Amino acid sequence: MVFSSLTFLFLYLPLTLAAYFLTPLRGRNFMLLTVSLVFYGWGEPVYILVMVLSTLIDYTHGMLVERFRARDRLARWFVGQSVVFNLLLLGFFKYWDFLAANLSLLPGISLPQLGLPLPIGISFFTFQTMSYTVDVYRQDAPVQRDPVNFGAYVTMFPQLIAGPIVQYKTVAAALEGRTHTAGDFALGAGRFTVGLAKKVLLANAIGALWERQLAAREAGSLTLTGGWLGLLAFGFQIYFDFSGYSDMAIGLGRMLGFCFPENFNDPYCSASVTEFWRRWHMSLTGWFREYLYIPLGGNRGGTAKTLRNILIVWFCTGFWHGASWNFVLWGLYFALWLILEKYVLRSVLAGTPGWIKHLYTLAVVFVGWGIFAMEDLSVCGGYLSVCFGGGPLWSSADGYALRSYGVTLVILILASAALGKRTWRRLPGRWQRLLAPVLMCLGLVLCTAYLVDGSYNPFLYFRF
Question: Residues 243-300: pLDDT tens digits?
């Protein structure tokens, strides 16, 4: 079940909110745990067992770390057990077939591919529970002694499927006791509606152009103009798809009394690749920085170790997204650009006009999205070669695509530049209070009409 579905909007969500707010305060974590398990088990109930097992392991290991804190070596042993368990769980379900297929290419090795469906959201909830035991050991977070409260944290349906990755320490106080106000609920509902509109009205609207350009490449009719149109389409689709989901998750959390971390900060306004990754999927980049890059030594220890650490982190970032070589290549592609900006391009960029830096950043990022989107590296190579002169410049089909999607592309460009957000902030408070409910109702009506009438409603991060 995804947030941008009629089932969620008009069945699950109203019933969940009614059950949650009719439950006394002391029982709301139990109710949240219950409805979250229903949400997760809607499509694949058998994998509830995987989530419950992960929850129990990390709950008990957090207790063991706290119990043996005075015996540091033993406490670190339990932290290591928790990390290994989570990585094995993630590795088995997400990476076994990939490793089996590649290792079986070696002489004398034959490993079976199991073809197991990927438990939804496993990349997110394993990272959350893994960071919990580390934070308890570091004393950055209090140990959670109530298994219901911990279960509610792990399974919390707003951020369960695709984040943002919520560290336990950011919601620990709210799990113990939180307030619910009409103002917070209204802010959360507004944020949810904005995210829903981004996903349904913007991401879905441009996704068909990307599929059209992929089909053109398969038919051998892709041009340089069409290739870049496709990269733009996918880049906008994944941004409004994923940031829209994050907005919906943050809004739902606010409605339930939680403040989740922001996950996007207008990344397409960046003036460097380094800045882009400070603004895109911030909960993931922050997680890798805190739990991998800094423990490896960060930028301490000289240039060679810094380069090693950047390459390790971005290899893991790419591989985290999927069991395919294109994701590894995508991660290393961005590692290369970050290294270049750190050691080679810094002085060049410092003296470059802002608009040129912005165009350079977008070009690097959108080429990266091409690598991300096409798992078949031969298809990816052929597509990108056309984008850089390996095919005709223009065709009549490109003119038709521009006429069909030109207005949509302009709207996406303005929306990704945060024009609407800045305009809204300039409005007087009285106008904001008057317009907010009107725009919310209009957004819900338009999204509902689209969902009723259309069948194209993918969610790109559902597989992670």
Answer: 999 999 999 999 999 999 999 999 999 999 999 999 999 999 999 999 999 999 998 8
Which residues 6+ apart lie within 8 Å of 13 measured at CB?
none
**What pLDDT sits at residue 190?**
93
Residues 57-87: tens digit of each pLDDT = 999 999 999 999 889 899 999 999 999 999 9
**Longest Cα–Cα distance in the chain:** 73
> Domain coordinates of the chain in residue numbers?
6-178, 184-463
Instruction: Choose among 231, 234, 266, 233: nearest CA to 247.
Output: 266
Alpha helices of 201-260 — where are they, by DSSP H? 204-219, 224-255
Angstrom distances, CA of residue 125 to CA of 4, 87, 365, 410, 426:
21, 11, 27, 36, 38
Closest to 323 (Cα-Cα) out of 150, 114, 464, 137: 464
Q: What pLDDT does 91 receive?
A: 93
**Which entry of 61, 180, 281, 321 is annotated as an active-site residue?**
321
Alpha-helical segments (H) within 48-203: 48-67, 72-90, 96-103, 122-138, 147-155, 157-160, 168-176, 182-197
Reference 299, options 309, 288, 291; nearest CA is 309
Q: What is the pLDDT of residues 195-224, one digit of tens each?
A: 999 999 999 989 999 999 999 888 888 999
**SS3 label, residue 156:** coil
Annotated catalytic residue 321: yes
3-state secondary structure of 164: coil
Separation between Cα atoms, residue 434 and residue 269, nearest integer Å: 29
Neighbours of 43 (CB within 10 A): 12
| Number of CB atoms found within 10 A of residue 159's CB | 29
Query: Are 260 and 250 within 8 A, CB to CB?
Result: yes
Q: Give, in degrees to the nearest 5, the angle at Cα 81 between 76 and 87.
A: 125
> Measured between alpha carbons, how far is residue 457 from residues 203, 320, 409, 451, 452 in Å?
9, 24, 18, 8, 11
- Distance from C-alpha of 284 to C-alpha of 34, rounded to nearest angstrom: 27
Which residue type, as a one-letter code, is found at position 2?
V
Which residues, at least 6 apart from 354, have a Cβ–Cβ distance to it below 8 Å? 271
The two three-digit tokens of residue 15, written as one number: 């019933």
Residue 12's CB is within 10 A of a number of other CB atoms, namely 18
